[in-house]
Amino acid sequence: MKCPFCNYLESKVIDSRPIDEGSCIRRRRECENCKKRFTTYEKLECINLMVIKKDGTRESFDRSKIINGIIKACEKRPVSMEQIEKIASYVEEAINKTVAREISSKKIGELIIEKLKDIDEIAYVRFASVYRQFKDISTFIEEIEKIFKEKR
């Protein structure tokens, strides 16, 4: 495994443990050159899943796009990378449980929103505003009012 700090190709595994209910292995590694430590994840490669975008085009499923979208929504919020990874794993697991090899981006967005709402309401509204393409301030207000009604 290539070191992200010095690009040396040799590292040793210090610790391995299963995560996400055994669907992934987290490995803590140490570079044999610079001695810095880094984490890698080993995951079973699944059959290629296609995402149907809003405009009808198709592209391969990319977990990193989910993570990047959630990171943007959670910017300057008290949401850890571990929580973000858990959302991405939940979405990926839910998608893999379906028989279909194609899924709409709308369904993926709804799965993300479902989990974000429980973790951080601000991040939820941010993500929903982009995902649902809020047109004006009244749409924001309606969404925030829904949150208040659900809390009561």
From TrEMBL:
Location of the ATP-cone domain: 49-139
Alphabetical list of Pfam families matching this protein: ATP-cone, Zn_ribbon_NrdR
NCBIfam families tied to this protein: transcriptional regulator NrdR
Record bears the keyword Metal-binding: yes
InterPro entries the UniProt entry points to: ATP-cone_dom, NrdR-like_N, RNR_NrdR-like
GO biological process: negative regulation of DNA-templated transcription
Protein name: Transcriptional repressor NrdR
GO molecular function terms attached to this record: ATP binding; DNA binding; zinc ion binding
Cofactor comment: Binds 1 zinc ion.
Cofactor section: Zn(2+)
Top-level division of the source organism's lineage: Bacteria
Keyword terms, alphabetized: ATP-binding, DNA-binding, Metal-binding, Nucleotide-binding, Repressor, Transcription, Transcription regulation, Zinc, Zinc-finger
Family: Belongs to the NrdR family.
Role, per record: Negatively regulates transcription of bacterial ribonucleotide reductase nrd genes and operons by binding to NrdR-boxes.
UniProt keyword Zinc-finger, yes or no: yes
PANTHER family: TRANSCRIPTIONAL REPRESSOR NRDR (PTHR30455:SF2)
ZnF unnamed span: 3-34
